[in-house]
Amino acid sequence: MTTIIDGKQVAASVIDTVKSATAALEKDAGVRPGLAVIIVGDDPASHAYVSSKSRMAKECGFTSIQHTLPEETTQEELARLVETLNADETIHGILVQLPLPKHLKSEPIIQSIKPEKDVDGLHVVNAGKVATGDLDGGLVSCTPAGAMVFVRRTHGDDLSGLNAVVIGRSNLFGKPMSALLLAANATVTTAHSRTKDLAGVCRNADILVAAVGRPEMVKADWVKPGATVIDVGINRIAAPEKGEGKSRLVGDVAFDEAAKVAGVITPVPGGVGPMTIAMLMANTVIAAYRKAGRTPPKF
Ligand code: GUN
Prior knowledge:
The chain is of the alpha/beta class. The chain has 2 domains: 28-114, 3-Layer(aba) Sandwich (Rossmann fold); 141-274, 3-Layer(aba) Sandwich (Rossmann fold), CATH 3.40.50.720. The protein is built from 10 helices and 11 strands. Helix 2 (44-59) packs across helix 10. It is globular. NADP(+) binds at residues 168-170, 234.
């Protein structure tokens, strides 16, 4: 029987840990975790994401601050806000929602966030710590951190002897995911669009992680029987069967056929997606524990 991972349920258990860690920190150290989320402009999808992040932060018991800035905000104004939040002792996590409007450069803004408050894990210091295997010192970006929770709950902390294949080599996901799998002792291949015989490479994977942004690219015959398949893709495709002009979300894996071969598989939606916000909350509570000189919980 194939196990279908319920991402909502796993995310809820992460959130439970965040809530109790938050209550304990407030009781023992008088510190309440603080998360500041910045959004610039009017993109409706970004506003929806940011609202759920702010709402979840409140539900976790954090101080939750949202800065909603107008489309015409200048680089200097945004930089000044990050500086203010860097200096604010009540704020432990800063997130600048991406993408920013076209006239703003995101990279200097992201790199100006204090690494210890970079709960998105996008600062080069945090990316460097992941790359060097220093996982207890930095903050790991939320989507790979969430995918690793699934991997650990399926295979345990030690992946010795297992072959892992990550399809995709982005700085946001593929590279940190490969580094995390390697740090857990897996034998890791980072595959991408230029890989020769991609299907053959994937068939060798005990753990197959797809993050390419191509709807249903990974077919059943790419999957080793019994493998763990983690689908990070979120693709909107036309769904005329639901009515004219309708669409639906699919992953990078052809779920129905791959589920017949895999041992464990994540669905889209409802797999990795719900974990991203949960891990943002986890990173914020970790940052607050460290600031208070305490050992943070593990997720
Ligand atoms: N936009 C879409 N996903 C993300 C994310 O994880 N972090 C940030 N900062 N912006 C995003």
